[in-house]
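Example 3.2
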Amino acid sequence: MLPGELDIHLPPPRQLAAEFGLVQRRGLGQCFLDHHRTLDRLVRLAGAGPETAVIEVGAGPGYLTARIVRRTPHVWALEIDARMKPIHERYFGGPMERTRPVRFVYGDALRADWPAILAEIGDRPYVVMGNIPYQITSPLIDLLLHLRPLPQRCVLLVQCEFAQRLAAQPGRKAYGALTVKTALVAVVRQGLFVPRRMFQPRPRVDAAAVVIEPRCPPLVEAGNLPAVFSLVEACFTQRRKKIINSILDSKRFGDDREAVAAILREAGIAPVRRAETLTVEEFIRLWDAAATSGLQSPATPHTASTECPESGRG
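Structure, written as tokens:
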């Protein structure tokens, strides 16, 4: 901690619950992490400096928040449970205190006014962090990859299995459509493993940090992303089948087996391979071959971040 930075200490979860009469709600994913060394490692993964803004999702009582403010005073913390407000006011200062280091925003992160928060941040580079409730992980990542401007990176503590799926390599069991679609718009790597015993109350599964850095631009042109996503999903329709059979079963390109085989050959992909063995680059080549042949996969409703921030942030 640098001179002049804040050093806020919250009591352990059980003591905090007794002091404020707080009953944790598992339905909100309230499994608190109060392990300073692990929290500090998460902050280091985010790379936040004194001039970096941090948006924290799912602040809870503020255990991670207290470690973030040791690095930067520019913190926006989103928390769905307004019962945490007295805790925040006790340890981070009341709402009228000008020296308050954190702007707490109460409400569902998926419905928050993100443009207003980004407007408050202004031209500062920013990162997103959080101990994320498992039930909102997928829609939250989709939301973050749509922000304008994009964050420099996101460091999210998520269910270990989900982190493995996002960061999986071709040929691994966890490698799937989610892996490929995310890799088209972001560079993803798994950070640190956090065993369930470190949380209070203890969840049913272990957690892991995933580091997501949005690509600018994405690996595929913006207008083509929905169709490429559709193609990827088609290839993984039956992941244990040969890729040619998966594509034919999906009906994305009709039922002309020779036409589909020709596209695969043009992309340099053997029709007998399985989708889980293809690299992201090979999926792009497959899309290019399909586009050249005129057999383009229809778009799906799901999209991802497709544009670069004009401000240069991200």
